[in-house]
Amino acid sequence: MNRSALPDAGFIDPSGANDEAVRDLTERVVDGLLAQLTGASERSPLPDDPTSLSAAIPDESRESAELLADLEAAVEGSMNPAAPGYIGHMDTVPTTVSVLGDLVASAVNNNMLSVEMSPVFSELEVRLTETIATEFGLGPDAGGVLTSGGTLANLHALAVARNDSFDVHEGGLAAVDREPVLFASSVAHTSLQKAAMLLGLGADAVVPVETDGDSRMDPVALDRAVTDARESGRAPFCVVATAGTTTTGNVDPLPAIRNVAREHDLWFHVDAAYGGALVFSRRERDRLRGIDAADSVTFNPQKWCYVAKTCAMALFADADVLREEFRIGAPYMRGDDAIPNLGELSVQGTRRADVLKLWLTFQHLGRDGLEQLLDESYRLTALVRDRVERRDSLELASDPETNIVCFRATPDWCPRDERDELNGRLQRTLLSEYDVFVSLPTYRGSRWLRTVLLNPFTGEETLDDLFEGVDTFLRAARSEYVS
Fold it and tell me: In this predicted model, what pLDDT tens digit does every residue of 218-255 receive, in sequence order?
């Protein structure tokens, strides 16, 4: 093949003919990246004026120096989760080995569609998902597949639940004479509505269930909602409990919800995309009590297990149900009785080997490392909660159950209808003057400051900066209202 128009390092020559050119390009990229990442604590969590890269496709190959300059600008203009003051979202600096795992997975470029196209990684994904399912207590027949994010994992789980409850795997919903509905708390992740829409049920098929003062689903309200749905001629088929709500990090009462699901013979799904990591903390794992009774679980190690994006999974207590209710065979792929073609069992066909960076992270950190990260998160969470509670001008959204503390400024000198604007100004001030980024979600009709104590390089110094910023801002703002 004529490759005269290609740069020397355009591909890695399998004979090693261009190894020097490839090594030079690789080293320059890695050296530049490390220079940026090892100085990340000196940059703001969010860039002030990120560079826009040109989307034009050049006629000829650009010089490496130009590309490296653009790469440097891209990193400088990116969200900077490695900054100690980045405590606003469920994003964090990834483990080093997961970054390297992504590099290796990209280099070998195996396709997780089939065993034939990814012999090592397909088997590893089957075995590792079985291992994690065992951690949740899902039983000896459990298994699952990796997905690109929790949204796809929830979609996958609800698709299997729908197919298991109604005879629609091949014929579709046309033959279903009642409207299928599922139930989730009013603060559950919006991916459930998206899944219901994609599954042909409609977003309104997700019936919102009332929560208590700490954003946890009310089991009595759930039981009433299921009964009302049946009496109105609808067809309940699934209950979704959340272990780690997005805004406040709270955990639904899983045992009580399990009981309601059993009483009404409903599929029990637990969205543990965030909170599922608690299974690796001996001190905190009891917060997941009841998850062992789930029919399916969403878990997202790219969050609290520090794996580089993307890495999530849909787990099933009975892997045979996954195969029977979801599998679409690919006749162009050779089968294997021992290891299934995972592309036939997943929403995605072509899939990258995300399992490698997950496996590497577990191997490199070990249980002790994961447990320490989780427990340290709780230590910092307690410090934030205590500092909020000591200030009369602040209020908590809920009692923290994970490493998320959601609070807002509610000083008596600020009119209620102006408090959202006050908290927005406070958030911007914390970022611009203290290099502390907290997010500003809308919760129960108001704006709140949300801290996620996930960053392994966040310490008490960052918390000092956070509350110094809060106190200083409120003192200055008070003078605007009180003369």
Answer: 999 999 999 999 999 999 999 999 999 999 999 999 99
Q: From CA 441, how far away is CA 38, in angstroms rounded? A: 30
Which of 430, 432, 452 shows the shortest CA–CA distance to 441?
452
Count, residues in the chain: 483
- Chain segment 118-137, per-residue pLDDT in tens: 999 999 999 999 999 999 99
CB 400 within 8 A of CB 450: no
Domain assignments of the chain as residue spans, ordered by start: 19-80, 109-361
Alpha-carbon span 178 to 174, nearest angstrom: 10
Distance between CA atoms of residues 452 and 402, nearest Å: 9
Whether the CB-CB separation of 258 and 290 falls below 8 Å is answered with yes
| Alpha carbon separation from 101 to 95, 136, 247, 257 (Å, rounded) | 10, 25, 30, 38
pTM tops 0.85, yes or no: yes
Burial of 341 (0-12, 13-18, 19+ CB in 10 A): buried
Phi, psi (rounded to 5 degrees) for 316: -130, 135
**Range 109-361: architecture per CATH:** 3-Layer(aba) Sandwich (3.40)
